[in-house]
Write a structure and sequence with these properties.
- 76% of the residues lie in helices and 5% in strands.
- With 221 residues, it is mainly α.
- The chain has a domain at 21-33 and 42-66 and 112-220.
- The protein starts with a helix and ends with a helix.
């Protein structure tokens, strides 16, 4: 079946993905450092609204002493579902308990991409970015409330990631602990760097960010 072939290919890519992620870490460091060095030329207005949204979310979660709950678990399981569907694994069920625990099941063997997706793919931020792109292409506008919304989603995702990233996650066992340790740091930095770059300069900001990565990758290796 197609999903079995996809799982096989993703399994073959495991070692290259781990090696590539490790190699990417110094490249990302140099790219972030370059980004910081040109701070004066960045779009501070966009970043201010983005930071306002993110800071508001951080403050809200701190003030209310929020812990991992239904909302975070729902996003977590939906991310599993998204990557299961993208790799042609029909979803059979999803369960969310009131205490914050949850699970989903799908047909087929599965792969490390499905297992680790919730830990490097910020679903809320990705949804806000997709909506912002659609809104911008439809209206030609980028209102401030969209930038604040991206910041709120970013803050929410960052808090959720911080709560979910612990060594007792069964998903890490499924993907393999050593692979998880090699892959996730760079994957997370790349995801959140992309969000910040989009908030600063929308699509052009992302192109610039990935251009930096390409430049420093060639310079490093």
């Amino acid at each position: 079946m197609l999903r079995d072939k996809i799982d096989t290919v993703i399994s073959w890519l495991k070692i290259p993905a781990a090696a590539g992620a490790v190699m990417l870490l110094p490249v990302l460091y140099k790219s972030f450092r370059h980004w910081a060095s040109i701070w004066d030329s960045l779009n501070h207005r966009n970043l201010l609204y983005f930071a306002f949204g993110a800071g508001g979310m951080f403050a809200l979660r701190f003030a209310m002493r929020l812990r991992n709950g239904v909302a975070e678990t729902l996003e977590h399981e939906l991310t599993h579902i998204l990557f299961a569907l993208l790799t042609f694994h029909p979803v059979q069920a999803m369960q969310i308990a009131g205490d914050g625990n949850g699970a989903m099941s799908f047909r087929g063997k599965g792969n490390w991409l499905i297992a680790l997706a919730p830990y490097f793919f910020p679903l809320a931020s990705a949804a806000m970015i997709a909506f912002t792109v659609l809104y911008g292409r439809t209206t030609g506008l980028l209102p401030d409330w969209l930038l604040i919304g991206i910041g709120i989603a970013f803050g929410y995702d960052l808090c959720a990631f911080a709560e979910q990233l612990h060594p007792h996650q069964t998903d890490f066992k499924v993907a393999g602990y050593w692979f998880t340790l090699c892959f996730l740091p760079a994957a997370i930095l790349l995801s959140f760097g992309t969000i910040a770059a989009f908030a600063e300069g929308t699509e052009n900001g992302v192109k610039f960010f990935y251009g930096l990565i390409g430049y420093y990758f060639k310079e490093t290796y």
